[in-house]
Amino acid sequence: MADEFSLWDIVSNLALALRWTVVLAIVAFVLGGITGLIVLFARISARPWLRNLAKAWISVFQGTPLLMQLFIIFFGLPNLGIDVPAWLAAAVGLTCFTSAFLAEIWRGCVEAIPRGQWEASASLAMTWFEQMRHVVLPQAFRISIPPTVGFAVQVVKATSVTSIIGFTELTKTGVVLANATFLPFQVFAFVALGYFLLCYPLSAYARMLERKFNVAGTH
Questions:
Q1: Which of 45, 73, 174, 185 could potentially form a cystine with 191 if both were Cys, beta carbons 3.0 to 4.6 Å apart?
Q2: Do the Cβ atoms of 119 and 51 come closer than 8 Å?
């Protein structure tokens, strides 16, 4: 059976699957970022019920394994009569997972802004939203860039978990090819190379940004 597959066949199939890994990571990061921003505003809200709701969201999705979350969405919802295809379950699960971590990353960045900035903007009779928009968020955004880019690496790697529910991304394709070719070492070596080619540039970029902003912050 292995003779029926050339090295090019393995690489080309994995390259095609790599596209879906990239698409899923982008969708999860963009939608997770939007949801995370909403959770962030709720988390730092002056209203206790909003803060508690955001804390609960973060606790659930940070405190439980991503695999369990995917199982509940993909296998649990059909028991309630809601049919969820693998791609949708993967997108929703990763979006919720990403939003919880990004909300906490960004909350730390907002809280890193000196209290004097809040007091100075309040003395100008700015509303809470005006303070956030014009004073706090622009400074927090600058601080948040390195850890946010760094977390993107975790999102890319987390896409591999979706292979368990049948989403055909890089890892799932690797499993299929390994079973078909009986060449698991070679196949998964290429799978690992694919993740490395995606994650290493992001990791290097995050480190570069961290050094850049640390140096800029000392001047």
A1: 174
A2: no
